[in-house]
Design goal:
Distance between the termini: 62 Å
Strand order of the largest sheet: 10-9-8-11-12-6-7-13
Helix content: 40-55%
Shape: globular
Largest sheet: 8 strands, mixed
Strand content: 5-15%
Structural class: alpha+beta
Low-confidence stretches: none
Radius of gyration: 24 Å
């Protein structure tokens, strides 16, 4: 009996992916973001018979080619180096892990803005009985989206007609045929779908189901369980389980508690706990109940983050290692060893394996463009900087006054802002790091400053490089275009007055963020 999982390497998107990989049989030059150069994009289009403009600035402007290239890299058909990319010669449909590679390609293709809608449509197709026509698929999907209003708004923000577009994507990936999942599609959906949370779950079962979810997604998925309990009772139950859990599961529990109202008493009850105390005292400080966070709590929480990410993101572990106090690597290793964290030995073992002593933190090179003005700035910033840090940097490099609200929108549609200044449908911009929302070169982030005048910025991660020990970060290394002066429009005027771009002045002002 054949027990190999199904795949769809013969689906149209994967056939195109293989042709794109064939085009890269000889090493081809790539940009800093790992994509073919603009001059080569028309050549690639002709080689694989995809209509492509004679002049195109970036591969993302030809969606079929962009998706095929990303799939080729995600599945191992193409390997991207610092300056060139080359096909690996892999025959994916005949290798032992053909299904896993196909699944990796599917995951890459639906990631970002399309992911939630595409999986929601796939869930509608997976129901028994299967939908009989497109209208029924639309009805089922609409019901699922309306149960989560912000996701419903998100779907129609990025897609003109989301259900047919998602069905078409599932079709070219080999996951669906008409209004039914293929065998490969059903196999993939079972691995890609979010966990189903019920009110009757025990707290341990809940945290186990949510352990691998992004913290924003976990809070959304946990709503049926949380809504079935008073907030104070849910907080107490989650904290009790967190006290005896490993770091990754504990982090999920603490994220859920942080999102609950009326949880102050539950936090107060664990301030003396050796494991939960640092998080509880930080929560109290963030809510004005403490004047400061002890330095040892900051260290403990940094080691906690490292423990959470040991398997999932070793590069992030190294980044956080460099955030610890100490001039030399050995000093920081001593800090970890004396932190009192229950998983410090595992962290030290991992740091040794990762060659922490000779490592350097990651630096993100960002291009920040002010839409409609032709003004842009190139900024170098630590990968572990938060979006709130980035907000302050943008205020500095464009000479804004920070008198208005801001809003980030990540590639997956999640929104972030300063929740201490306004009650917006968003998460805290100080609670997410740049490397989380811009994990790979060419990823983009939208930023709006002043929700009235709407100064729109596009932030692109151009590349990730090791830190230069002689450079102070953040740094602005280039730019062009003058900055408009906010709130300076008059009825008599025809445009905003501007401040001239001055790299030296910007660099001086940035030192306050170092």
């Amino acid at each position: 009996m054949n027990t190999e999982p199904p795949h769809a390497w013969n689906a149209p998107a994967f056939v195109l992916t293989r042709r794109v990989a064939d085009w890269a049989a000889d090493a081809v030059p790539v940009t800093a973001s790992g994509m073919p150069r603009p001059a080569d994009i028309p050549l690639l289009g002709r080689a694989v018979s995809i209509p492509t403009p004679a002049k195109v600035n970036r591969l993302a402007y030809v969606p079929e080619l962009h998706r095929a290239w990303r799939i080729a890299v995600a599945t191992g058909l193409v390997e991207v180096g610092p300056k060139t990319a080359k096909a690996t010669g892999l025959a994916p449909d005949t290798c032992d892990d053909a299904a896993d590679r196909w699944l990796a390609g599917v995951r890459e293709a639906i990631s970002g803005d399309a992911e939630f809608v595409t999986l929601t449509v796939a869930a509608a197709l997976a129901e028994d009985p299967a939908p009989v026509d497109l209208e029924e698929v639309c009805d089922r999907t609409d019901q699922a989206l309306r149960a989560r209003p912000w996701k419903h708004r998100e779907a129609f923000r990025y897609f003109e007609d989301p259900v047919p577009e998602a069905l078409a994507l599932l079709g070219v990936l080999g996951m669906a045929s008409d209004t039914a999942l293929t065998p490969a599609g059903r196999w993939a959906f079972m691995r890609l779908r979010p966990p189903v949370i019920t009110p009757s779950m025990g707290v341990r079962e809940l945290l186990s189901a949510l352990e691998d979810c992004h913290h924003d997604t976990a809070a959304d998925l946990a709503a049926p369980w949380l809504d079935a309990r008073p907030s104070a009772a849910a907080a107490t139950e989650l904290l009790a389980e967190a006290a005896s859990s490993a770091a990754r599961r504990r982090a999920t529990a603490l994220d859920l508690v942080e999102g609950l109202p009326f949880a102050g008493a539950a936090w107060q009850n664990v301030t003396a706990d050796p494991v939960l105390g640092p998080a509880a005292r930080r929560w109290q400080w963030e809510h004005g109940l403490r004047n400061e966070v002890p330095p040892e709590d900051d260290i403990w929480m940094t080691v906690e983050e490292m423990a959470v990410n040991l398997d999932a993101d070793p590069a992030y572990v190294l980044d956080r290692f460099h955030d610890l106090p100490g001039r030399a690597a050995d000093d920081r290793l001593t800090v970890v060893a004396s932190s009192g964290h229950p998983e410090r030995d595992a962290v030290l073992t991992a740091l040794t394996a990762l060659a922490a002593r000779t490592s350097r933190p990651r630096i993100c090179q960002l291009k920040i463009s002010l839409t409609g003005w032709g003004a842009w700035r190139r900024v170098m910033v630590r990968a572990t900087a938060t979006l709130y840090d980035l907000h302050q940097i943008i205020q500095t490099v464009f000479d804004w006054d920070d008198d208005h609200l801001h809003l980030f929108t990540a590639p997956d549609g999640r929104r972030y802002s300063d929740l201490l200044r306004a009650d917006l449908d968003a998460s805290d911009s100080g609670g997410v790091r740049i490397c989380e929302v811009l994990p790979t070169p060419s990823a983009r982030l939208r930023y709006v400053y002043d929700l009235g005048d709407e100064w729109r910025h596009e932030i692109t991660l151009q590349k990730i490089i090791p830190a230069d020990p002689n450079t102070i970060y953040p740094a602005c290394t280039a730019g062009n275009g003058d900055s408009p002066i906010e709130d300076s429009w008059t009825d008599e005027g025809t445009s905003y007055p501007t401040r001239p771009f001055n790299l030296e002045e910007i660099s001086t002002r940035l030192t306050k963020h170092a």
